[in-house]
Amino acid sequence: MKIEYFHASRFGNGEQIAIEFKRIMSERDITVNIHHMRDIRPKDIPPADLYVFSSPGCMGKPPMHVRRFLHGVNLPAGTRFALLNTQGAVSPGKDGQMPAAEEVAKLQRMTPIMTDILAEKGLSLIATETIDVFNIKGPLEEGWEQKVEAFADRLNWLLFYKSQR
Ligand SMILES: Cc1cc2nc3c(=O)[nH]c(=O)nc-3n(C[C@H](O)[C@H](O)[C@H](O)COP(=O)(O)O)c2cc1C
Questions:
Q1: Which of 27, 62, 68, 114 is the most buried (most CB within 10 A)?
Q2: pLDDT in tens, 33-77
């Protein structure tokens, strides 16, 4: 079982998540190859049982280079993918109030936008998870390792046990 993992980490948080994901999967005998999106062309993506894409947020969307990368992906219809994104942790405004849910949603459209780009190509989304990053550059939210582990377990189950039933 092999997973190809593509991230676009700018400050290192997304990369830290990728490394932890790889470590957890290696304990389950699953190989994970990590790539930064700037280091590989989407048409050179190697074959795999699953693709994981991971993006930070930028003005409510994945950054332009991530969207360009995803638009360039050329994989067979039905290919399975998962999204493990990072986003800015929501904090109270100057008035001490948390922003309204609709305002937050406008700034965190990374997962639906990435899903739409890949679904239009016939790719099949199997799971998503999002991890908060505080203060733009970090730290990651408390308990992020457990979140990554639960996500890895979910993927493992979907890929392996479910396909044997
Ligand atoms: C210019 C800029 C714009 C950002 N815009 C958003 C945003 O619209 N929504 C959001 O949730 N996070 C936003 N963030 C926070 C990023 O999601 C966060 O810095 C990133 O997830 C950190 O991950 P990294 O260390 O892997 O780069 C922004 C960060 C920067 C620097």
A1: 62
A2: 999 999 999 999 999 999 999 999 999 999 999 999 999 999 999
Q: Which residues of the chain have pLDDT under 70?
A: 161-165
Distances, alpha carbon 116 to alpha carbons 74, 94, 112, in Å: 15, 34, 6
Residue 83 has φ and ψ, to the nearest 5°, of: -120, 130
Interval between CA 7 and ligand 1 midpoint (Å): 13
Ligand 1 centre distance from Cα of residue 86 (Å):
8
Around ligand 1, the residues with Cβ closer than 6 Å are 9-14, 56-60, 86-88, 107-108, 133, 136
Task: Tell me the whole-structure pTM to 2 decimals.
Answer: 0.96
* CATH number of the domain bearing residue 28: 3.40.50.360
Contact between residue 74 and residue 28 where contact means Cβ atoms under 8 Å apart: no
Kindly give the distance from the C-alpha atom of residue 163 to the centroid of ligand 1, in angstroms, as a whole number. Answer: 36
Which residues, in sequence order, are bridge partners of residue 80?
124
Task: Report the domain count for the chain.
Answer: 1
